[in-house]
Amino acid sequence: MTVTPERVTPSLPIYQRVSGEQDVNSAAAEEFLDRMFAEGAADEGDRFETRLAEVRAEIAETGTYRHTATELAYGARVAWRNSARCIGRLYWHSLRIRDRRRVTGAAAIAGECVAHLRQATRGGRIRPTITVFAPDTPAGPGPRIHNEQLIRYAGYRLDDGSVLGDPRYAEFTERVRRLGWRPPERRGSFDVLPLLIEAEPGEPRLFTLPADAVLEVPLTHPDHRWFAGLGLRWHAVPAISNMPLEIGGVTYPAAPFNGWYVGSEIGARNLADEQRYDLLPVVAELMGLDTASERTLWRDRALVELTLAVQHSFDAAGVTMADHHTESRRFLSHLDREERAGRRCPADWSWIVPPLSGGQTPVFHRYYDPPDPGQRPAFLSPD
Questions:
Q1: Which of 68, 150, 155, 271 has the highest count of CB atoms within 10 angstroms of its CB?
Q2: Is residue 86 annotated as part of the catalytic site, yes or no?
Q3: Catalytic status, residue 157
Q4: Catalytic choice (80, 92, 234, 260)
């Protein structure tokens, strides 16, 4: 096996039925097909009227319909194109599709998640990838992956109220421990959490990710030798796994997908935020900065050096990573392409503008079409 199942302690069901109880809206299917054919993305020789008639008949008979491989690929890519919080949408055409709708059983789903990570990582040459599992249907719900990302680090609440590891995942860590997960004997700040997969309602199962599926980068600094002594590291692939994918009225509750990191996501947020690893005071002290007053801008100076260390380390390891200045310019290139194609490009300003030196990037100095909650295809908020 590629993943190690954990013994799960019986518990109350954690699944909640959402979209699996109703038929697909045929109007949503028609809107999706109309856009696909209008953009010239259908298979050569296919006709809109013929395909629409097939879909309507299938919905009338079963309450849902099955996307063709071409429809699934187009829908997943457009969902990325529509992601208002993503600055990396220039690459939406390059998303690699892994169609795993016929995969059943928690162990098999976990195995495909591991395969996803291996194929997306490629030794550091990160490739945008999505793996799509079975959809919700009127006959029953599709599987759920309860992890926010396929790779995240545990957070252990200590007796003094502090957290060892990532505080964001302290609750999730307690949850999987109640279900039977056993942390390493020697707990650390970067212990990879198990996958929590629910293929059948009320039957959650845990799976430990194998080490060779999780590429991690030890963090060092190009100028400060003491930085390596902090023992920091971060995983190479940000694979979001708890956002349902909706295409033409059909919802795929398990569809993990990844791009690659922007350095400031790790250096200026994950490692820097007070509610996460909160490393700015540590870095500032080791830099010899005066932290007695905010007017010394010690936070800003430490933030730059922490992000520089992340970028330097990924580059040294040969792992794909973008920087916020380059990615900002590329996003405006994407915006220009979308406008020339006659499409709106909604963007959430608070997410598009990077958390470091925002005013020095071109995305800061303009407004965008506001996010449209009804835009489809889309990656939806978690259940």
A1: 150
A2: yes
A3: no
A4: 260
φ, ψ at 66 (rounded to 5°):
-105, 125
Q: Give dist(CA 332, CA 328) in Å, integer.
A: 7
Active-site residue, selected from the candidate residues 6, 71, 246, 265: 265
Supply the pTM of this predicted model.
Answer: 0.93
Residues 6+ apart with CB under 8 A from 160: none
List the catalytic residue out of 80, 86, 298, 338.
86
Cα–Cα nearest to 179, from 192, 197, 155: 197
Q: Which of 77, 89, 98, 100 is catalytic?
A: 89
Q: What is the pLDDT of residue 275?
A: 97
- 5 forms beta bridges with 207
Packing angle of the helix pair 26-38, 69-81 (nearest 10 deg): 80
Interatomic CA distance for residues 134 and 111, integer angstroms: 15
For residue 70, give every residue at least 6 positions away whose Cβ sits within 8 Å of its Cβ, in sequence order, or none.
41, 42, 43
What average pLDDT score do residues 148-174 get? 98
pLDDT of amino acid 22: 75
CB 237 within 8 A of CB 96: no
Q: What is the pLDDT of residues 226-265, one digit of tens each?
A: 999 999 999 999 999 999 999 999 999 999 999 999 999 9
